[in-house]
Amino acid sequence: MHVPVLAGPAIEWLNVRADGVYVDCTAGAGGHSALIAERLTTGRLVSLDCDLSAVALARERLKAFEHATVVHRNYSELAEVLAELNMGPVDGILIDAGLSSMQLDSAGRGFTFQQDGPLDMRMNPGIGPTAAEYLSAVDEAELARVLKEYGDVPRARTVAKAICSMRPMATTGDLVAAVRAAFPFVTGVPVEVRTVFQAVRIAVNEELDRLERGLTGAMDALAPGGRLVGITFHSGEDRVLKQALREASRPQRTLLPDGRTGTVTAPRMTLLTNKPVLPADEEIRANPRAQSAKLRAAERSVEGA
After folding, report:
1. Are 214 and 295 found together in one domain?
2. pLDDT tens-digit series, residues 232-268
3. How many CB atoms lie within 10 A of CB 125?
4. Closest Cα to residue 298, out of 278, 275, 277, 273?
5. pLDDT tens digits along 278-297
6. In a domain, 113, yes or no
């Protein structure tokens, strides 16, 4: 069974009440969701995931909890989902923005460079272009920007040129070969392959844009005193989460047409974690993929708009 990352801290910061209403925006295999559901009596849990395989696993894991509902949707559509379910303000929302182990370990999904498989990388298979289609169409300069911004890939222009010169691509092995061509002085598979795959995956799934929309929807959906907990796994995700929470924790100002400050209202959110919560050494030893995880939490202000 897939082990959720930072499970204990996530549940602690959510401050789950037996009669509360909660949303797990990234159900995965249902690990975090199960920990929330088992603490509820008269409360309710809604779990979302854009991956049909994850939805099936989560539904199986949560079938014993009658107050839990699993929905096949992306968390960027949180507001629409809650409206469709006739749900009002909620008491806690969890967003785990990382790629799950079950996705990474499936060669057929195209997320891993350690096994050859179709170059897909879509979190919601069947919707949108595959990684192969994206790489066949993207402009070389734009690809270099994506590699730099989403993966901090060194020699991003050289890597982008190598990829474009070797397209069309069909398999993960093709992409690995292109990266190797960009680093001819490296014996074996360059370590940069990992971040190239990360950057392409983020672009294909529009992950950072969806995370921004998901965070906005989450803060809108919280009841006063409700909590938002986010878990990220790389600097791009953490930057989006950190900036969104910091901005919401400042007094909200409106500008008049002449540029002067108009209405000033109380912050929407109160930061609960000034620094990110990191996994303990014990968790990292048990699950090395947890090493890069960071957790941040905030609470919806009673006075904030």
Report:
1. yes
2. 998 899 999 999 999 999 987 777 777 777 777 889 9
3. 16
4. 273
5. 999 999 999 888 999 999 99
6. no
